[in-house]
Amino acid sequence: MIFGVMDVFWVNDFKSEVYLNVFCTQMCARQRMPVALWRTGLLLSFLCVCACLGEDCVLGIVGRPVSLPCLYPDLLTLANYSIEWRREDEVVLRSVWDEDGNIQIWSMNRATVHTDATQTGNFSLELPEADPKQDNVYYSFFIISGENQRSLVCKVCLRIAASFSFPDLQRGEAVEGEETSFHCQSSGGYPQPAVYWLINDTDEPPEGSVRTLAASLPDSHLYNITSHLTVNISRDSSVTCIIENPSMNETLTSTSYGTPSGPVVSRASEGMWIFSTALCVVVGVMVIVGIWYQIHLDRISKRKKKEYQQTQRGYKRRRRYKEEAEVMRQESKETDV
Fold this sequence. Notes:
The protein is an alpha+beta fold. Helices cover 34% and strands 30% of the residues. Strand 3 and strand 4 (90-97) form a beta hairpin. Helix 1 packs antiparallel against helix 2. It is elongated and about 160 Å long.
């Protein structure tokens, strides 16, 4: 069986392309029409072909599953055929359907298609995870029937990306009148990003003042970005490091704000000194008052203790005098008897 016009279905505009293909078929079927309509039909046919040949890459996030779409409902009417997914010239998946609906699948790297593809016409390729080594690679879907008659149905571009970490910006200390160094670092992203620097949110640094190094990790193929800026600026200037990853539509910024200089610093230092002095005076007064109050309490405690002891001694004397007087009275009575 010979397959006519190749039908390429993409994810974002599948429905619109189907409508365009139908319209193109109807326009081509009409052989007798006015010249103006013929020109219009030719123009629309050209637009249809352009729409079918347009390439929309599928974005795969590193480490996450990704689906490469391919919809071909016309395959539902066929029998005893096989399908094949290729990555460039390498076979990724091959499956065979017979008239009884039995299926035999061979795949590489755990790639799969839907088991009900023959009923739904959805022959999308499911990859278990996106790998940077597969970036900007084309996957092609073929239908094989008869005597190895291979027809291209879908061709999908796979683009790989990963988010970078929030940039870590560090500011080096500089002696007055000398250049200041800045260090900006971000890691774990893909592909290699663009790095920009801004001074006071608007000014670009001088030419030759920026040095950027991108290192690819051997195991994951992700990038670590390190950028250095050495520039002669005032201490109150702010510096911003920008990491831009267009593939992820991602822009990360980190800003180092300068310290105010001149009279503002002097007034701030003077105010801090006055506050520290006043705080020390208040604390000193509170300590002195506390010590004096403790001495006063000790004196009162000693005086009360002394008075108590004197009272006890007087009580003992009176008691002894009473006992002696009682004894003397008893002796006096005995003498009288």
